[in-house]
Amino acid sequence: MDTNTQNLSQKSDEVAGHAQEKKDEMMSKASDATQTAKDKASDATQTAKDKASDATHTAKDKASSTAQSAQQSAHETKDQAGNILQKTGEQVKSMAQGAADAVKSTLGINTDTTSSHPNITSKN
């Protein structure tokens, strides 16, 4: 072979080798960029999952707290209603006893020597 052909062949091999190195370098950079993008996407997905989980737990805690508060309020209302009914029953009983005493006193069959109702006077 002549020298020019050898030089051209050698240059061609150098250029091909250099092109292969550049290709390998670019493929490596592309692979690195792809892996970085995958990592970022995975991190973003995990962050979203964590936030959703936290929001779910917060909502569950609030719902539980609200239910407990409603249950406590209902229990207190029930107790108050029971107290009101008891007082009302006692008042009705007292009024009925007073009316019975007044009727007995009016009819002269009151056996009490002292009236429990000072506003009612005996006609004896």
TrEMBL record:
UniProt xrefs under InterPro entries: LEA1/2/D7/KIN2 (IPR039624)
Extent of Polar residues compositional bias: 1-10, 107-124
Top-level taxon of the source organism: Eukaryota
Ranges of compositional bias, category Low complexity: 64-74
Biased composition (Basic and acidic residues): 11-27, 37-63
Coiled coil stretches, renumbered: none
Region (Disordered): 1-124
Name recorded for this polypeptide: Late embryogenesis abundant protein
Organism: Kingdonia uniflora
